[in-house]
């Protein structure tokens, strides 16, 4: 199975091409650039370096969120367009779950992104070699509340994030369990790991209905609801994971 995997959920951008478990080519950048201008050229370069053509692909795997609203839309829209155009399978993988394989040890792994105002996007996973199991669902949560959840579990944890230093003091002041964390280099998204996760995923996405997993209301939606308090449509306009 030939797979194209892509992630633009945060500042870093990562694209990989796999032939089943074998990595053919990968590019990862960590420069704050316009992903909408960079993604397609990098996909073209990576596919060319892999020695294949887009028409050879069997599956697209994309980091579905959480993360930057704009970044998520770029990769998800590109992935949907390619999957529809090529007539191939589409799989969405959590942007947080994608980071779990980066942990250098087994056990409880906590990937998180800064969501501002003391909040984070985070999940808690159990890593056992290549096997990954979700312990606490991905969510938008106050960081102190996340730490309390970790204390309740009562087990050592391993944080995977490029922003640990921004939360380190709160970790040291709050956690009663042993905590370690990855280096910034080992916290960057890895489209190869994303592709491996997506290769084994049985649930395929519908290219017409698939949307990013924002995990919180977008600013545009929040502003709309403030200006239209009597709007009868009470449902969120974005997919949120329960």
From TrEMBL:
Please give the superkingdom of this protein's source. Answer: Bacteria
Per UniProt, the keywords (alphabetical) are: Transferase
Task: State the name under which the record lists this protein.
Answer: tRNA (Adenosine(37)-N6)-threonylcarbamoyltransferase complex dimerization subunit type 1 TsaB
CDD domains given for it?
ASKHA_NBD_TsaB (cd24032)
Give the GO cellular component terms, alphabetically: cytosol
Organism lineage: Bacteria, Bacillati, Bacillota, Bacilli, Lactobacillales
Q: Name one GO molecular function term.
A: transferase activity
Q: Which gene encodes it?
A: tsaB
Q: Where is the Gcp-like domain?
A: 32-224
Organism field: Pediococcus stilesii
GO process annotations (BP):
tRNA threonylcarbamoyladenosine modification
